[in-house]
Amino acid sequence: MELYVHGFPSDVAALRFEWAWQHPAASRRLQDAKPRPLPGEQPIAFALRMLPRLLWATPCYHLRWLCSSPCPTLCPVPPPHVVVETDPGGPRPRPWKWPTPPLATPSVCTLCLEPCEGPTLRCPQPGCHACCHARCLAPHFLGAEQNELLPLDGTCPR
């Protein structure tokens, strides 16, 4: 189960909500809500019991559940301006990763003609097989502007 509470008017409001939810006994927003766990109450059940009270006390506009089983019902219900969305869950898309280059035989730096070992820079143009050391490519890209530290762009040495 995942729960997203979002739509706060500012970052400060979101941080205040987060702090109040993590420290309900110390929060001034929940003084009348008896922010103590009931005997035998699990921490997640206590947090879900405090959530609607916090939603009534803080400006928030969206509550999104991502769960494969039926989502818990909140008591009391959230305020009418809070949009409660549910998503049945399922497989989440995996984060995108840079493609791993195929293992190849060690290549030679296009500029200094020494073997390229370790991290190297390759030309992004399709079909170009230029491979360079960063220490060789930086002066090539800087050209006449030797006062700069890092090049922003340049042309492929091939």
Write up what this structure looks like.
It comes from Odontophorus gujanensis (marbled wood quail). InterPro entries: SLX1_C, SLX1_endonuclease, Znf_RING/FYVE/PHD. This is SLX1 endonuclease. Keywords: Endonuclease, Hydrolase, Nuclease. It holds the Pfam family SLX1_C. The protein has 158 residues and is of the alpha+beta class. It has 2 domains: 84 residues, no CATH class; 54 residues, no CATH class. 23% of the residues lie in helices and 12% in strands. It contains 3 helices and 5 strands. The strands form 2 sheets. It has a 3-stranded mixed sheet with strand order 1-2-3, with no helix packed on it. A two-stranded antiparallel ribbon has the order 4-5. Helix 1 runs antiparallel to helix 2. The longest helix has 15 residues. The chain is elongated. The two termini are 53 Å apart.
Largest beta sheet: what is the strand line-up? Answer: 1-2-3
Beta content comes to 5-15%
Give average pLDDT, whole number.
75
Structural class by SSE content: alpha+beta
Tell me the Rg in angstroms: 28 Å
Question: How many E strands?
Answer: 5
Span between termini: 53 Å
Number of helices: 3
Low-confidence stretches: none
* Helix residue percentage: 10-25%
- In total, the number of domains comes to 2
Shape: elongated
For the biggest sheet, the summary is:
3 strands, mixed
Order of helices and strands: EHHEEEEH
